[in-house]
Amino acid sequence: MDSPRPHSPIAHQLERDGFIHVPGVLTQPLMGSLRLRAHATLFRESAEARDEVKSNGSLIHLADNPEYADIVGSAAITLLLRDCGATDPRWTGGIQAATFRAPSNCS
Questions:
Q1: Which partner from 16, 68, 100, 104 sits 20 to 30 angstroms from 9, CA to CA?
Q2: Per-position DSSP letters for the chain, written without gaps between them
Q3: Longest dimension (CA), the chain
Q4: pTM here?
Q5: First and final C-alpha spacing in the chain
Q6: What are the angstrom distances between the C-alpha of 105 and each of 27, 51, 84?
Q7: Where are the domains of the chain?
Q8: How far, in Å, CA of 95 to CA of 29, rounded?
Q9: Is residue 106 within 8 Å of residue 16, measured between CB atoms?
């Protein structure tokens, strides 16, 4: 298993900005299908169901919807999180959770 690289440029961006935007991690066809799947899921979900999960920053619970398995199981996302310093990235509660080693010299 590769060890995380907490001093990579992307780790610095995460530390500095609190988020990262990395074009190309997921393919354009996948992103297009993801948008369609999200619209369909939101259409199916009731307002009450959306309210139950909105505290985690989402309107849907990915783990409850098998059509998102390719996102949940994405090796590219896992590798990206490892590059940011995540020591054990995994999906919990519908969101990607990870333990990070904080870079000591990020500005």
A1: 68
A2: -PPP-TTSHHHHHHHHHS----TTSS-HHHHHHHHHHHHHHHHHS-HHHHHHHGGGT-SS-GGG-GGGHHHHT-HHHHHHHHHTTBSS-EEETTEEE--B---TT--
A3: 46
A4: 0.62
A5: 28
A6: 32, 39, 14
A7: 26-87
A8: 22
A9: yes
72-99-89 Cα angle (round to 5): 20
Question: Cα–Cα–Cα angle for 15, 84, 95, nearest 5°?
Answer: 90
Tell me which of 45 and 99 has the higher pLDDT: 45
Sole residue written with tokens 């390719």? 70
Closest alpha carbon to 67 in 99, 107, 40: 40
Q: What distance in Å separates the CA atoms of residue 71 and residue 34, rounded to the nearest whole number?
A: 9
